[in-house]
Amino acid sequence: MKEIKIISVKSEIGAGTRGASLGVEALKIASLDLNSDFFKQYELVEVEDVNELLYDGARHAYAKFIDGVLIMEERVCLEVYETILDEYFPLVIAGDHSTAYGTICGIRKAYPKKRLGVIWIDAHADIHTPYTTQTGNMHGMPLAMACGIDNLECKVNDPRGETVEYWEQIKNVGTPGPKILPEDIVYIAVRDLEKPENYLVNKYNINFIETEEVKKLGPVVMAQRALEMLSHCDLIYISLDVDSIDSRVSSGTGTPVPNGLTVDEAKALSAALARDPRVCAWEIVEINPTLDTENRMAESAFVIMEATAHSIVNRPVIAE
After folding, report:
1. N or C: fewer beta carbons within 10 Å in the chain?
2. How open is the CA angle 218-248-127, to the nearest 5 degrees?
3. Position 149 pLDDT exceeds 70
4. What is the pLDDT of residues 271-305, one digit of tens each?
5. Planar angle of CA 64, 168, 203, nearest 5 degrees
6. CA 271 distance to own-chain centroid
């Protein structure tokens, strides 16, 4: 049995809508309302944020607050790295999705010679770059950072010098160069794909599981299929953006999208995936209680997180 450590990342500088920094506290309130002692069971460490940069305004049009995002990637990387070194399982609760790259960097730093697969449960592909982004919001870029991709073939923007310098620095956080291969990503429930991202999915033949497949064949079957897609990987990291859940439920997130998973499907899917002993970190992101009523999104997210944590602590152990 592996002990969990909760890593709280209240950063929201990568998002276009404010409020994701409050997601951790919303989950704690949800746990109380659901009569759970989850947050008493595990140690929690908080990564210091730089959200005060939001008051200065965004200087980098095609990579907003990239200077602060770089700081956050480095801090999250170090925290995840040290957590793994201390033989804890990192369960990360983050604000915006940009810092998921820091989690990937921390895993890579801890396991430099192991092949890392990523299961990305999200409405969005999050593989834009400063050269392709329409919004400049960096929560749409973590997988491009992780793969070391610029996607110049789909270039529509011309980022200025300092932006490019920061982007090159970000790609080398933790360890130099790419942290994962695009073919070691499995997308689940991605349904709001933009042309530059679609280009990369096709170019690298990135694994893709549609929401409809989860509904038709069931979340446990599709979890097994996702794990089989990464059978060649030594380790797996799971990142769950709550906008993977249908927008009728996930109003409490910055970019809700219709035709998503139900809460029960997301819960069963995540819990089934987490039973695999190769899963070395799990993350949930983008809970924004300012967009919600009655804390519904956080309660749904908490139910998913608690079930997943139960899978993690009760699974078989393999030698690392």
Report:
1. N
2. 70
3. yes
4. 999 999 999 999 999 999 999 988 999 999 999 99
5. 90
6. 16
Helix intervals (H) in 138-295 = 142-147, 161-170, 195-203, 211-217, 219-229, 263-274
**Domain at 4-313, CATH class:** alpha beta
pLDDT recorded at residue 264? 98
The tokens for 34 are: 């659901």
| E runs forming strands in the chain | 4-9, 43-47, 89-94, 116-121, 185-188, 207-209, 235-241, 279-285
- N- to C-terminal Cα distance for the chain? 13
Q: State which amino acid sits at residue 199.
A: Y
Backbone angles phi, psi at 119, to 5 degrees: -105, 115
pLDDT digits (tens, 9 = 90+) for 36-68: 999 999 999 999 999 999 999 999 999 999 999
Amino acid at 13: I
Domain boundaries, the chain: 4-313
Mean pLDDT of 171-189: 98
Cβ neighbours around 278 below 10 Å, total: 17
- Report the interhelical angle of 263-274 vs 296-313 (nearest 10°): 20
